[in-house]
Amino acid sequence: MKSGKQPILILDQDCRYSVIKVTDQLNAAGFTVVQSFDLQSALAKYHDCLCQMIVLLAYLQDGPPATLILNGNHLSTSIFLENDPEGSFRSLLVTELSKLAPSDQF
Questions:
Q1: Is the pLDDT at 94 greater than 80, yes or no?
Q2: Which of 53, 72, 66 lies closest to 97, judged by CA?
Q3: Which of 33, 5, 10 is nearest to 106 (CA)?
Q4: 23, 43, 41: which is closest to 32 by C-alpha?
Q5: In the CATH hierarchy, which top-level class contains the domain 9-98?
Q6: 52 SS3 class
Q7: 33-73 pLDDT per residue, tens
Q8: Sequence-distant (≥ 6) Cβ neighbours of residue 94 within 8 angstroms
């Protein structure tokens, strides 16, 4: 789906559960997280689709948000960071999200 891009994190868990974990982790770190898109809601009539894509906007106090795209299914979730409003923003997001990964992934 994200040709040429590498995920910043891959979690071996359901995409919906990953959204909750990512949102909780970033909220605890001082971010405000807003869900802006949910593929399953957009494709509600296709009940047999196992794919999932959710877009989260992560805000700090000032400035534009970072866009996190969670792409997965009921087994695995890949997390992409689409834009980086500030140089330190990316490292802060990656640091917080790395706390969700198994210790052997980083």
A1: yes
A2: 66
A3: 10
A4: 23
A5: alpha beta
A6: strand
A7: 998 866 555 455 555 556 678 899 999 887 788 899 999 88
A8: 8, 9, 81
The total number of residues written for the chain in this structure:
106
Rounded Cα gap, residues 88 and 72, in angstroms: 27
The Cα-based distances of 70 to 51, 58, 62 in angstroms read 11, 13, 24
* Residue type, position 73, single letter: N
Task: Round the CA-based radius of gyration of the chain to a whole number and report it.
Answer: 14
Beta bridge partners of 98: none
Specify the 3-state DSSP secondary structure of 97.
helix
**What residue spans define the domains of the chain?**
9-98
- The residues near 83 (Cβ < 8 Å, ≥ 6 apart) are 64, 66, 67
pTM over 0.70: yes
Which residue type, as a one-letter code, is found at position 16?
A: R
Instruction: For 41, list phi and psi in degrees, rounded to 5.
Output: -65, -40
Q: Which residues are 67's β-sheet partners?
A: 57
